[in-house]
Design a protein that fits this description.
Layout (H helix, E strand, L loop, with lengths): L11 H16 L7 H9 L10 H17 L1 E4 L2 E4 L2 H13 L10 H34 L9 H8 L13
Antiparallel strand pairs: 1-2
Length: 170
């Protein structure tokens, strides 16, 4: 086959493979510090030799990129939220496990992520409750945490100028 522009002959399969590799390489930065871990996870699906199975690798990387972007996943019609560090923890757990055969789907990873997601949600609930109690205690003690502008303070205190308050107890 010939290129319609330069008339150079090429193999269409090579052109498709090159485009797939371009997409694969452009996806890698989306995983940040976890890119090697994601690649290791993809290898569990038997994507080697990479030259031949680039289409499968690209599909797996796209699915992982969606997981990292959304920081959420669905399993059995239920939506779960999980942080990027939680995803990385789950990937490490899966990659450290020895599988006799290549993985067929993401179900094992999702089951690991469910436990991590539930733990993160519990920790977030505890953190929010502590923050709420801290705010409540400061309100009960009469301490205001909010920051206000000088104009807002003048309005609340009913004064014309802050300069008039210099040297006086507020």
């Amino acid at each position: 086959m010939q290129c319609p522009y330069c008339r150079k002959s090429f193999d269409p399969r090579e052109a498709v493979a090159e485009a797939e590799w371009y997409d694969i390489i452009s996806l890698i930065p989306e995983f940040g510090p976890y890119s090697k871990l994601v690649m290791e996870y993809c290898e569990l699906f038997g994507v080697t030799p990479l030259r031949i199975k680039s289409k499968k690798l690209l599909r797996l990387l796209r699915e992982a990129a969606v997981l990292f972007r959304n920081e959420s996943f669905k399993f059995h019609k239920r939506q779960y939220r999980i942080s990027r560090t939680g995803i990385a923890e789950a990937l490490r757990t899966v990659c450290n496990k020895h599988f006799e055969t290549p993985l067929e789907n993401h179900n094992y990873l999702k089951k690991v992520m469910i436990g991590i997601s539930e733990r993160e949600q519990r920790e977030e609930g505890i953190r929010r409750e502590k923050e709420l109690r801290r705010k409540e205690a400061s309100i009960m003690a009469g301490v205001r945490e909010e920051s206000i502008t000088a104009d807002e303070y003048k309005r609340r205190a009913g004064i014309e100028s802050l300069a008039a308050m210099v040297g006086k107890d507020m």
